[in-house]
Amino acid sequence: MKPTLDTAWAVQWLRLAAKVIAENRMALIELDRVIGDGDHGENMDRGFSAVLTKLDAEPPATPGAAFKLVAMTLMSKVGGAAGPLYGTAFLRAASAVGDAAELDSNTLAAALAAARDGVVARGKASVGEKTMIDAWTPAVDAASAAAASGATPAALLAAAATAAEAGSVSTDPLIARKGRASYLGERAIGHRDPGSVSSALILRAAAQAAGEGA
Amino acid sequence: MKPTLDTAWAVQWLRLAAKVIAENRMALIELDRVIGDGDHGENMDRGFSAVLTKLDAEPPATPGAAFKLVAMTLMSKVGGAAGPLYGTAFLRAASAVGDAAELDSNTLAAALAAARDGVVARGKASVGEKTMIDAWTPAVDAASAAAASGATPAALLAAAATAAEAGSVSTDPLIARKGRASYLGERAIGHRDPGSVSSALILRAAAQAAGEGA
Amino acid sequence: MKKLINDPKTVVDESVEGFGQAHAGHVRVHTDPLFVTRKDAPRAGKVGLISGGGSGHEPLHAGYVGYGMLDAAVPGPMFTSPTPDAIIPATIAANAGAGVVHIVKNYTGDVLNFETAAEMAEAEGVSVRTVLVNDDVAVEDSLYTAGRRGVAGTVLVEKIAGAAAERGDDLDGVAAIGQRVNDNVRSMGVALSACTVPHAGVPSFELAEDEIEIGIGIHGEPGRHKIPMENADAITQRLLEPILSDLAPAAGERVLLFVNGMGGTPASELYIVYRHAAKVLEAAGLIVERSLVGNYITALEMQGCSISVLRLDDEMIELWDAPVNTPALRWGM
Amino acid sequence: MKKLINDPKTVVDESVEGFGQAHAGHVRVHTDPLFVTRKDAPRAGKVGLISGGGSGHEPLHAGYVGYGMLDAAVPGPMFTSPTPDAIIPATIAANAGAGVVHIVKNYTGDVLNFETAAEMAEAEGVSVRTVLVNDDVAVEDSLYTAGRRGVAGTVLVEKIAGAAAERGDDLDGVAAIGQRVNDNVRSMGVALSACTVPHAGVPSFELAEDEIEIGIGIHGEPGRHKIPMENADAITQRLLEPILSDLAPAAGERVLLFVNGMGGTPASELYIVYRHAAKVLEAAGLIVERSLVGNYITALEMQGCSISVLRLDDEMIELWDAPVNTPALRWGM
Ligand SMILES: Nc1ncnc2c1ncn2[C@@H]1O[C@H](COP(=O)(O)OP(=O)(O)O)[C@@H](O)[C@H]1O
Ligand SMILES: Nc1ncnc2c1ncn2[C@@H]1O[C@H](COP(=O)(O)OP(=O)(O)O)[C@@H](O)[C@H]1O
Ligand SMILES: [Mg+2]
Ligand SMILES: [Mg+2]
Ligand SMILES: [Mg+2]
Ligand SMILES: [Mg+2]
């Protein structure tokens, strides 16, 4: 396993993310239909399709440039709550990695934390409010722990994805306090938050791009 | 069997007609829903309910007055195609019987013919066009034959009702050429004309009021 | 059946009562018999214009009572023509001495009831002319039917004849322009779902999940034929073909394009139909000079639409553009 | 799912294109990114007023672009907030130097996207004020939710703030009157059926044949709770109670009563609701001074309605009555 990840990884991540979002388009729509307005899969798929086009048209030169590209594309194509939140997340990650050509585990952990902080800054959600933060915060914690223990970037991303997946599952019994599902009160109980699912899918794609299987 | 029918018969006829129309309200709606606009039972029931109220408020002094009462009430309460047609029918019947206190078989046959001619004058339908005329014309023919053969009024009305019922059944295989069902073309085939059914019900009530069972 | 009603028997009365309250600035509601007049009817010297028919087509007709359109409207029971005892007082209320034009949609019931009312109003000294609207090209062979139905073209007849009455045309003149509009308009409709008449309680016809009904009227009656569901552009084409072949407008002629919602179709879909209809008309060399898009003559909550094309001339355009101030159609004032 | 569309992916673009053609006298449609402006925008000296949000609520917002109301509207994808890359050019197009007011319905997505756009427009030298509409009393405890949603009150905010901008109020003044309308309006909705978003293809929630959903928003999201079907008067009462208890108007106050259709409900039913709502308000000692009844902010083909009550003052009445000339709301000109 390599000690750093490069632009090729970043581009591969985004391609895999686009693929898995497209594959899960209807599943995300269905989750959002039950406790939201049924557009999350459509929104994310529209956004990541545009990311693919952009990647072909203007191949990024650094991982940071790739993150900035996806940030601007999601911001302008996704709409709804998820668009600005994911947009801010990738924009902050881009700032965190700067112009670096190679990202080591510490930088990756810092980038994930910056992304999460960006979502919190915009959406003001904390853990337990049944949003994508319930996937992001455990992922950030797992990434920090992995970086501290000297894990490779690939192992770090795998740990983050696994934590995000568990975090997403943990939204099932919750009442939502933020976003559209919050209007439902107790009727949201028993349903998974769609944004936490898309977050986990995207983080899993990052690990896969780094060479870690599902 | 009495050789003539009086005002009590006329009133009893209208009461029985109101009853049977109310009982068949949904059946007539259903017939009209299939090849029309689903209001025939509602329209007729609204009209005959009003007839009952009028009969209580202003008891008619002669059979002709009863016919006039029902004519004016149906004209102003039924609406649709059936209202003016039945209204005209009873108005012509009223003219045909004049001020007579007792109606014999010849007068009854003439009254029925006048009623039918009124419907034709307004609606321009001939036999075979899948309208109430397909019930009325056989009824008129049966009544004339009965009168010619010296039948009692009760027997005459029973023969007319039976002919109307057969006439109504005869509308099943027809394509409609008049009224709303005419828009359906071949799709009207296999369905009974609702106006012919209500006509047969009303004529059967006349026979029952004269002492003839169903 | 789920409806925002209290009782099928009181739907029309309560609805018209609410309508009268919400539009007290425009109209006055008369009860027993039920009819609606312009608040300021009759207007001295002006020809009166009235229409009526079964309820369930709102905003038709009461929504068009007001300046520049109808002087009175007579709402019948649900999908059932009103009776002469309501049409007669409405006719009298609309008469300012210059006579009254009846705009009647061609259905046996409407024709017979308005005919009776006209006779009786004439007997009371009111001159009446009748314009019979029969714009529905879905009814193919009028020799073997009750004839073409009056559908969405009615709104255009009421607007344009109403403007003629407002500018002071005489009785025959108002009737003539109404007739001219009818002669130059054709319509055709499609249903994606049926509607449910409150007193019937079940849908007026059945459509499978992938079927649509082409050539429907406005009473939930079945149409020309069922076909499998198609996309909006294909349906639009299908509706326009019989309209154009019957109206046969020459290239370069100006038309009004009217896409009407049946009550349960979102406005966004009507605009998708409009978009393609305008393309088809332009490809046929026609000039779409005026437009109308929305729920103007409905069949309760039916999903679907109708398209109408009216061949315009200078006078019709002038009368179309003239100020109108009714609850459902308003511009210029 | 049966809809008059060609492809779920092109619904919004094609619909807005058709809308632009049908109302070419009022609006101009800009594509890529998609937004709609007044034909004569920007109007020298006038504060610009813009709004936007997910599509599927037609005629909101593009239907309110025109004299006396909005200078621009930004239609997002179906039920999905538009993005800053469309909101920014719309803001710039609406700016005549006097600044722009954003009217934003309170949903996380709308708030975040308009917030971003406002920041970026400010960076380009446009002064922006935001009026957040949150009139939906169905959302009970805003401490534990994303806060009250913006629903039908939006139409009233747009009309009244639009009239203030048209008469020449400055940026803070227009924002202040918009805020005042929001502070004085409360709404609550009911659904008899769900709606189907084209790209989802199935209804947004399930309702049994004898169930209705109380407290719904305008996105097909479920509401406060399901209850067994009731008659129109009982439902009306149920919707008005939380409105009145929250707005707490004093006897003798004047109100505007707005009964809004969700897209699939016949006008006749809306008037039945209006009738009883007016009774309830009058029984509470209120004066129903102005009314609005119809499909003004919808949820596709959903069956149901919302009721809004706006507490009026003299200035709001004057601005409400002021001339407006848009595709969907027009009077006085
Ligand atoms: N305030 C918030 N903070 C963090 N995440 C949020 C917030 N509000 C909503 N979300 C996330 O956004 C997702 C919904 O996104 P999407 O359906 O695309 O937008 P919308 O709700 O506008 O339709 C939710 O599942 C949730 O994870
Ligand atoms: N021209 C006509 N002549 C005779 N009967 C007719 C004619 N048109 C319609 N009818 C009769 O009227 C009946 C329909 O009445 P109804 O449903 O009450 O009126 P509408 O068709 O206006 O809804 C038909 O079943 C038919 O028997
Ligand atoms: Mg959503
Ligand atoms: Mg009928
Ligand atoms: Mg009828
Ligand atoms: Mg959304």
Quick overview:
Chain A contains 9 helices and no strands. With 214 residues, chain A is an all-alpha fold.
Pick out the low-confidence regions of chain C: none
Instruction: Using the alpha-carbon principal axes, give the shape of chain A.
Output: globular
- CATH architecture field of the largest domain in chain C: 3-Layer(aba) Sandwich
The protein's oligomeric status is: heterotetramer
**Unreliable segments of 5+ consecutive residues of chain A:** none
Mean pLDDT of chain C: 96
**What is the CATH topology classification name of the largest domain in chain C?**
Rossmann fold
Kindly report how far apart the N and C termini of chain A lie: 16 Å
Please outline the major beta sheet of chain C: 6 strands, mixed
Tell me the name of the CATH homologous superfamily of the largest domain in chain C: Dihydroxyacetone kinase, domain 1
The secondary-structure element order of chain A is HHHHHHHHH
Give the DSSP E fraction of chain A (strand runs of 2 or more residues): under 5%
Specify the number of helices of chain A. 9
The CATH class name of chain A reads Mainly Alpha
- State the secondary-structure class of chain C: alpha/beta
Give me the number of helical elements of chain C. Answer: 8
